[in-house]
Specification:
Length: 310
């Protein structure tokens, strides 16, 4: 009797343990679960299935053969190897520059006494602007004859560059665009991290007349380390997923001259929609998923070993 009363009392104190409340919770979650299964779980299963076929016809949902030949083709395809090289350039060149610019901008905005909200809005606008629309602007900026980038380079005595038509420069044009397009969100993340830091640390540093650089490396960076690594993980994933920038920079007419600016995601898109090689596209998507998973796990491991969370 006492046990039954105790159970009823526990159910009243903890509604989630009550079967009635649990059923209501699952009913509320049901639409989201259905959407997740239809648009996330089912496509993942289908991708895994199609990637192991030697040939596949999407319209009839029929495949022939079953093995690793699609992966062998993709890994030996020069276009996929170029896509990996370009994506690595975007990651290892673009991500450090983006993080440095975002952190510097966030520090500047956070130091403002007046107009902080105005600058936050200005710097966040690119994030809510269509990438395709911004791509049109960058196509004009990178124009060989009339672009402002070549105009400013002329003041430094540098001849005009063919940013969008030179195969050796097209990937760097995309990298610059990627740096700019990913800047706004990272600024917001850094601002959120900076505002979490207790002001007493800086007040104590001012009392001790600590140099600004020492304040940055001894106070700001250690206390911002968790945010810094989160931004690094998000930046790497965003750089690996580069597609919209390539599509908008070249107007949807391929990935630059001779597909010289192709990325992994653009390769998957091109294989699926343009060439109708669904099994190759699925195999490339699985390889891409494995790369992202490995890098994310590595970053997580590094952050747990070396990052101080506050």
């Amino acid at each position: 009797m006492k046990g039954t009363n105790r159970l009823k009392r526990a159910e009243k104190e903890n509604p989630l343990g009550n079967t009635h409340y649990s059923l209501k919770a699952y009913l509320y979650l049901f639409p989201a679960i259905v959407i997740f299964c239809v648009f996330v779980f089912y496509p993942i299963i289908m991708t895994l299935r199609m990637g192991f076929y030697e040939s596949y016809v999407y319209l009839t949902d029929t495949g022939k053969g079953f093995g690793l030949s699609s992966f062998q083709y993709v890994l030996h395809d020069p276009a996929f190897q170029l896509a990996i090289r370009n994506t690595v350039i975007i990651v290892f060149v673009g991500v450090p520059i983006t993080i440095a610019l975002a952190l510097g901008t966030a520090l500047f905005i956070n130091s403002l006494v007046k107009g902080k909200g105005f600058f936050q809005t200005i710097y966040f606008l690119p994030y809510v602007t269509s990438t395709v629309a911004i791509g049109l602007v960058f196509r004009w900026l990178f124009h060989s004859d009339y672009g402002y980038i070549n105009y400013f380079l002329s003041f430094l005595g540098i001849p005009a560059q063919k940013w969008l038509t030179n195969p050796n420069l097209s990937v760097f044009s995309v990298t610059i665009f990627t740096i700019w397009s990913g800047l706004a969100f990272k600024i917001v993340l850094f601002l959120a991290g900076l505002q979490k830091i207790d002001k007493q640390y800086y007040q104590a540093a001012r009392v001790d007349e600590t140099p600004p650089m020492r304040v940055f490396f001894r106070i700001t960076m250690p206390l911002l380390s968790s945010t810094f690594w989160m931004v690094a993980i998000v930046s790497v994933i965003h750089a690996f997923k580069t597609y919209n920038e390539v599509y908008s920079m070249f107007g949807g007419n391929g990935a630059g001259p001779g597909n010289s600016a192709i990325t992994i995601v653009y390769y998957i898109y091109d294989m699926f929609f343009n060439r109708s090689q669904v099994h190759y596209a699925s195999a490339a998507a699985i390889v891409f998923f494995a790369i992202i998973l490995a890098l994310t796990a590595l970053q997580k491991w590094i952050s747990k070993r070396f990052v101080h969370y506050v």
